[in-house]
Amino acid sequence: MIRFGPSGNSDSFYEQGYKNSYQMPQWLAAMGLNAYEYSCSKGVNIKETTAVEIGNEAKKHDIYLSIHAPYYISMASEEADKREKSKKYILDTLMVAKWMEAKRIVVHCGAYSKVDKRWALDTAKHVLKETIELADAAGFGDIHICPEVLGKQNQLGTLEEILELCQLDERIIPTIDFGHIHARGLGVLNSEEDFIGIIDSIENAIGAERAKNIHCHFSRIEYTKGGEKRHWNFEDREFGPNFEHLAPVLIKRDMEPVIICESRGKMAEDALEMKKIYEGIKSV
């Protein structure tokens, strides 16, 4: 079953008088959405009681939960201490996922900094492998770690790098951020054929069956020569990519991903727009 939802809380959620994230599952279900990505991107600070409450509400309203781990994770840092802290941040996020009964956490891998790209990827693979072993020992083995394709040229996270990381363990699910691919490639996703090429690459790397259930981020993104600059909304049509080009590919390939919208301030509204586009094409 394909699922659509936002990353974080739309401005309208607060404008309507809501204050707490545990209210999001019911709010999203009333809109017709069925996924929600809770953000720990600035740090894992949520209390267990709050996480459990969000999880209970999500279960009640059939909202699929994922959690975004802290942005400052750096699995390819030259400093061993930072690599060790990165393992802890991932494990802390997994603990929250356990409380919340979320099944996926989204993880950034870090930046290349001044190191060789091959060294960075090999180091990240080693750190991720050790993290998976620690996660299994802690009882988190049923929660998928989902490394994300990143949007800036200096970040570890090209599509190819993420797919190589996913080959470490069959439980690793890639987070395919199509806006990031578009921005990093300086505007490469402009047609259905362009998206077919991305899906082909994913299937060739991890197999068609695993590719069916990938985790996705989608939003329009402004970019510079360095890649991603800022996220925009679906109404900002001067920026790509267009979901109208991806939806037919998902339907033809019989894919059932979780698609999380990261539009600026209107992530729930644009997630609903994606759902309507998808259902409109599928019904033809």
UniProtKB/TrEMBL annotation:
<dbReference type="GO" id="GO:0006284">
    <property type="term" value="P:base-excision repair"/>
</dbReference>
<dbReference type="GO" id="GO:0008270">
    <property type="term" value="F:zinc ion binding"/>
</dbReference>
<feature type="domain" description="Xylose isomerase-like TIM barrel">
    <location>
        <begin position="26"/>
        <end position="273"/>
    </location>
</feature>
<dbReference type="GO" id="GO:0003906">
    <property type="term" value="F:DNA-(apurinic or apyrimidinic site) endonuclease activity"/>
</dbReference>
<dbReference type="GO" id="GO:0003677">
    <property type="term" value="F:DNA binding"/>
</dbReference>
<protein>
    <submittedName>
        <fullName>TIM barrel protein</fullName>
    </submittedName>
</protein>
<dbReference type="InterPro" id="IPR013022">
    <property type="entry name" value="Xyl_isomerase-like_TIM-brl"/>
</dbReference>
<dbReference type="InterPro" id="IPR001719">
    <property type="entry name" value="AP_endonuc_2"/>
</dbReference>
<dbReference type="InterPro" id="IPR036237">
    <property type="entry name" value="Xyl_isomerase-like_sf"/>
</dbReference>
<dbReference type="Pfam" id="PF01261">
    <property type="entry name" value="AP_endonuc_2"/>
</dbReference>
<dbReference type="GO" id="GO:0008081">
    <property type="term" value="F:phosphoric diester hydrolase activity"/>
</dbReference>
